[in-house]
Specification:
There is one protein chain. The protein has 17 helices and 17 strands. It is an alpha/beta fold. It folds into 2 domains: 27-82 and 428-466, Roll (Urease, subunit C, domain 1), CATH 2.30.40; 87-421, Metal-dependent hydrolases (TIM Barrel, Alpha-Beta Barrel). It has helices spanning 2-24, 100-112, 126-137, 169-181, 196-208, 223-229, 238-243, 248-256, 262-271, 275-287, 296-303, 321-326, 328-335, 339-361, 383-394, 399-413, 460-465, and strands at residues 26-38, 45-53, 56-61, 69-76, 81-84, 86-91, 115-120, 145-148, 153-154, 164-165, 187-189, 213-215, 233-235, 291-293, 431-434, 448-453, 456-459. Helix 2 (100-112) links the parallel strand 6 (86-91) and strand 7 (115-120). The strands form 4 sheets. Strands 1, 2, 3, 4, 5, 15, 16 and 17 form an 8-stranded mixed sheet that branches.
Length: 469
């Protein structure tokens, strides 16, 4: 009798242990197994496993395999390189109602190129962009997460359609009210017609509301005053160059008195670049945590329109006829430009490469942005972000810092670090898996094995299907 009770007790204990072990088992949606995980903070690469559930990273393990975990979908990532999905930090959705569908086609091109997030820096299709943004968030449409500025803020008679025009103080508050009502993710200020005073006051007003700002800078304002007003990001390098010139104040005064134009100022500012002034400017940018968007690829593309035949570009065939039509403006201007102006533009392109490298060397945070979209000739949505990172590396910036300028810095700039930018537990599962190491060759960013957008898997085959025929 005693032996029978003992045997029964052991059996019950054994069953209890099995049940407890089963209860410990955790089931995930997806496991990325044995991949080389790139840490964008320090450039380290370690073999590990990434567990994904409900569109987020549930766990990242660098130890031995978790025997108490199971996954419905296991991806063998052995020999592959894993990093956050790419961010294009400067794109445009624009061109009017007739180009809504053409712009919508860009969304799948971004995903096909591993770009899981874009920062829309202003356009005239805000209603459509907000619809796409919501549909993507609800998984009703394939496309990148969209952070948008909505319409740009500019002065009376603004160059770009749909801009909010400010002429007096009340206009600024009204414009910001309308952007908050949309609501947009940041404020984009353009420089075609806005006065220097209204430009600075717009930044200050946005700063009081706790809004993120980025923009061009009218040459009637100085870079120092722009930084002090509270700008969060400077789009393009013209304005950085101005702030590095020993003649900035004199050039600003001539612009204010209508004695000089924007392009007239370029050779003067370039030739009066001063190392000591530049050093102070870089320190100021760094102290105020101002990001800079170099947009080197588009600058180079536009500077060489007179030499390069783009008619056989692979991505040209993916652009709708209406988009290609918008390219004509810049193309015609290039054809009708003087030889001196063409040469000046090319010299400026070379100078900007050095400027981007110097910014990076001095610890200024950069954002990788393509400036792709309608009107920007041959700067194609998707592939141009990869070309921008290539251009950064060509300028002397390390592959790690070029990669950082995409997702890592993009998330920091928009204050989205809790959800994006690194591969950590709790963050959104926007992930790209590459066949080869981009830290060794930045062109490897184009060798995409697989993409995850909010946990949804896109294989090479499914990515190819996103590219228009």
């Amino acid at each position: 009798m005693r032996y029978g009770f003992s045997f029964l007790g052991i059996a019950m204990l054994f069953l209890l242990l099995i049940n407890c072990e089963a209860e410990k088992k955790v089931s995930y949606d997806t496991l990325l197994k044995g991949g080389n995980i790139i840490n964008l903070e320090d450039g380290s690469v370690n073999v590990g496993d990434i567990y994904i559930s409900d569109g987020r990273i549930a766990e990242v393990s660098y130890d031995k395999a978790d025997e108490n975990s199971t996954a419905k979908n296991v991806v063998d990532a052995t020999g592959k390189f894993i990093l956050p999905g790419f961010w294009d930090n400067h794109v445009h959705f624009r061109g009017g109602d007739s180009l809504i569908d053409a712009n919508k086609r860009f969304l799948e091109l971004f995903i096909a190129n591993g770009i899981t997030t874009v920062r829309d820096a202003g356009g005239d299709l805000t209603t459509s962009v907000m619809q796409w943004k919501k549909a993507i968030e609800n998984n009703d449409m394939v496309g990148p997460t969209i952070f948008t500025s909505g319409p740009k803020i500019d002065g009376p008679g603004a160059t770009w359609a749909g801009s909010l025009e400010v002429e007096k103080e009340a206009d600024i508050e009204k414009a910001l009210d309308s952007l908050e009502a949309i609501p947009t993710d940041f404020v984009k200020i353009y420089d075609s017609k806005i006065s220097g005073e209204n430009y600075l006051n717009t930044i200050r007003a946005a700063e009081k509301r706790g809004l993120i700002t980025s923009g061009h800078m009218p040459f009637t304002a100085t870079l120092e005053s722009t930084i002090d007003a509270g700008i969060d990001a400077v789009e393009h390098l013209y304005y950085i160059m101005k702030g590095c010139s020993s003649q900035e104040d004199a050039v600003t005064e001539q612009l204010q008195n209508n004695k000089m134009g924007f392009w007239d100022a370029m050779p003067i500012l370039q030739s009066t670049y001063d190392d000591s002034v530049a050093k102070q400017t870089y320190e100021h940018l760094k102290q105020k945590n101002v990001f800079v968007v170099p947009t080197l690829h588009i600058g180079h593309t536009l500077s060489y329109l007179d030499e390069v035949d783009h008619s056989e570009d692979t991505y040209l065939k993916y652009m709708a006829p209406g988009i290609i039509k918008t390219y004509e403006g810049r193309i015609n201007r290039a054809k009708n430009t003087s030889e001196k102006a063409i040469q000046d533009r090319k010299e400026l392109d070379t100078f900007f490469k050095k400027l981007a490298w110097t910014l990076n060397q001095n610890g200024v945070s950069l954002l990788a942005g393509s400036d792709s979209g309608a009107f920007n000739s041959y700067t194609y949505p998707g592939i141009s972000l990869h070309k921008e990172m290539e251009a950064m590396v060509d300028a002397g910036i390390s592959p790690l810092d070029a990669l950082k300028a995409s997702a890592y810095n993009g998330a920091k700039f928009l204050k989205q670090e809790s959800d994006y930018g690194t591969l950590e537990s709790g963050k959104v599962a926007d992930i790209v898996i590459l066949d080869n190491n981009p830290l060794e060759n930045i062109q490897n960013t184009q060798k995409i094995f697989m993409v995850f957008k909010h946990g949804e898997k896109f294989t090479k085959e499914s990515l190819e299907q996103l590219i228009p025929n």
